[in-house]
Design goal:
The protein starts with a helix and ends with a helix. The protein has 11 helices and 10 strands. It is globular and about 50 Å long. It is of the alpha/beta class. A 7-stranded mixed β-sheet has the order 6-7-5-8-4-9-10. Strands 1-2-3 form a 3-stranded antiparallel β-sheet. Strand 2 and strand 3 form a beta hairpin. 37% of the residues lie in helices and 16% in strands.
């Protein structure tokens, strides 16, 4: 921890360093010690103020000095499935092989990824499963974001959210293919959700949505189709689409998802298409890091 204190001390010294005033009317000025200026306060979410340095809190400044990078720049939508030597990537590869096996046994070519409640990580699982499948040379993948209320899939691949599925369903267009986008992974294409709408359930219940899935099955005959669905206990959307998919993957978050919510979600679906449960956010332990070193 001594390096943290050294970083704080260094930041304090930098605040007190003299500065050169710009010339006035062509005349130079003698360097003067900078007057002590208290750090600018910023307001936290709870309404309390905290000191900041150059727009950052002292904790963020110390973290940046200590770790050598700005932790605020971490990606919020990581594709860990593409990271070489990552234990998390290996877990997604295991999930990929399980999906391929179940597809071979039961023909589950269109799979819905959902969760009991919000913030269980169903979108990150859907995106990374799609990426893991796309890394297999023999696989072709189409990822569809059917979360029309809170779309996220486009964030993982850096593509535009609109136009997408919502625009297709609310327009007179009959060509669903023009809304499908190519991602940075050659074997992975994405149909984004489009702009957020409040009538998602009504749109997904349209005959046009059923026609779209049928057309996508026909136009992408060799593709594994992954659908990012809203949470089961939050909306009716997953129940509407349950009849149109071949399999369902339920995502729960370690230490967060109540067991009662999982049981209630499975009971709400009342579907024999549930392929399994993904335990998201589990601590694999130090041993896994050594194993994949």
């Amino acid at each position: 921890m001594s390096r943290v204190f050294e970083a704080l001390e260094k930041a304090s010294k930098e605040r007190a360093a003299p500065r050169i005033e710009p010339p006035i009317n062509g005349q130079t000025t003698t360097p003067q010690p900078a007057a002590h200026k208290p750090p600018t306060p910023t307001v936290n979410g709870n309404g309390t103020a905290r000191a900041s340095h150059n727009g950052k809190s002292w904790r963020e400044t110390a973290e940046e000095m200590f770790f050598g990078r700005d932790l605020r720049n971490y990606k919020s939508y990581p594709l860990v499935a593409t990271e070489a030597g990552s234990s998390a990537a290996e877990q997604y590869k295991i999930l990929r092989e399980q999906v391929k096996r179940l597809r071979g046994q039961g023909g589950a070519r269109v799979i819905s990824v959902t969760s009991p409640i919000k913030r269980d990580g169903k979108s990150i699982v859907a995106a990374n499963l799609a990426a893991a499948l796309a890394l297999d040379y023999n696989e072709r993948v189409l990822l569809i974001d059917c979360d029309l209320r809170h779309p996220q899939s486009h964030q993982y691949f850096g593509v535009q959210v609109s136009p997408g599925l919502a625009e297709y369903l609310t327009s007179g267009s009959s060509d669903i293919l023009k809304y499908v986008q190519q991602t940075s992974l050659p074997s992975l294409q994405l149909l984004p959700a489009g702009k957020s709408v409040s009538i998602a359930a009504e749109l997904l219940a349209m005959d046009k949505m059923q026609h779209a899935l049928g057309e996508l099955r026909a136009k992408f005959p060799n593709h594994q189709i992954i659908i990012d669905n809203p949470p089961v206990l939050s909306t009716a959307d997953p129940l509407i689409l349950a009849a149109q998919v071949d399999g369902i993957i339920m995502v729960v978050r370690a230490g967060k998802t109540p067991r009662d919510c999982l049981a209630e979600a499975l009971e709400t679906l009342k579907s024999d298409k549930v392929m399994g449960v993904v335990f998201n956010g589990a601590d694999l332990g130090v041993s896994s890091k050594y194993y994949y070193y």
